[in-house]
Structures are given as structure tokens and as C-alpha cells.
Amino acid sequence: MTIASLIDTVIAATRDNAQWAAPIVFLVAFAESFALLALLVPGWAILIGIGALIGASGIDFWPVWAAAASGAALGDWISYWVGHHFKDRATRWWPLSRHPAMVERGRAFFQRFGAWSVFIGRFFGPLRAVVPLIAGIFGMRQWSFQLANITSALLWAFVLLAPVAAVLRQFM
How far apart are CA 92 and CA 112, in angstroms? Predict the structure, then answer.
């Protein structure tokens, strides 16, 4: 299965089963945000496609947005927990063990921006996959992490879903 066919399959499944849109989006956003899956799942492309589907089909935006934000926040929280629990051992697992430069970029980014790295990192591909893990490894305070995690998840979900949905609703 190619990445393009995966994207098409998930969007088609959502179109054909609109009542499952929120759970599907939750799983996609979780996979896009969880450190060990984020490099394998083209979640941003799927979510933009589902945003178009929302605009074209009349699927209710707010439950899907809440599901995307919740899935993203949970994926980052579990990544943080893994880093906090396993410390540097977590960087020896696949796929991180194969991409030490990505881990190093995440570490440098976290050291430079602190709590803001969690917020900013959500919006940048490979950083999204490692910054929460690195935050856990470095022992970032839980409340600081969660504040950045939840607020960025809410905004990230909106940015991916709303623009295309709003434009298409104007023309439908």
C-alpha cells in the first residue's frame, strides 16, 4: 500500500461512514502525534482531506475538530510519558534509532525553546514526532508540557480541518 492509497482509503472510509468521522480522525491525529507512529502515518494530509470532506458533505465540524485535538494531545502525552519513563533508552528504539540526527534536532530545539518547543514543534513535521519524547526525557514539568500540548493540539486541529471545510461550505 502506498502513502497515496492510504490517504485515499482513510478519506473514502470517512466519506462512506460519516458517523465514524470523529473516531477515525481521533485515531489519525493520535498516530500523527505519537512518536513511534508519526513517521509512518501521513496524518496531516488525511486531516486536510477530511477537512475538505467536512466542507463538501455536511459532516459536523466541531465533533471532528474535538476528536482531532484530543487524539493529537493524547499522542503527545503518551510520547512524553514514554520519554519520561524510559529516558535515553527510548532513543534506541526504531524508528528513532535509525534517525539519530532527528533526535538531535529535537533535543536542540527543545533546549533552545523549552516549553514553547512543544507548542511550535506540533506544526513542523519531524519535530512533531520527537519533541514530546525529548521533553519527557529531559524531565519537563508535567503542567508546562500539558499546557503547551493541549493548546497546540486545539490550534493544530483547527488549522488542518477548518480552512478547506469553510471554503467548500461557501460553495456547496
Answer: 23
